Amino acid sequence: xxxxxxxxxxxxxxxxxxxxxxxxxxxxxxxxxxxxxxxxxxxxxxxxxxxxxxxxxxxxxxxxxxxxxxxxxxxxxxxxxxxxxxxxxxxxxxxx
Length: 96
Fold this sequence. Notes:
The protein is α+β, with helices and mostly antiparallel strands. The chain contains three helices and three strands. It has one domain.
């Protein structure tokens, strides 16, 4: 089992932990959020176990809260490389 880093505390952390549990290496996790938490909260939850990571995100929409969470994780050194692919109505933007 990976050691959890007690870095990220956010509104839905306990809900995610109840659904997914502790993260273990070499294990696949399948789950539905059903709107109970956001993509960035899932990423922060995973980073709390894995530590520093290269991150690739694809989305059709990101909120300011999500972007701020990504920036904070980068500033704190938990995201070493971040790539973002946005698509909306055939307009594609790639950020690195």
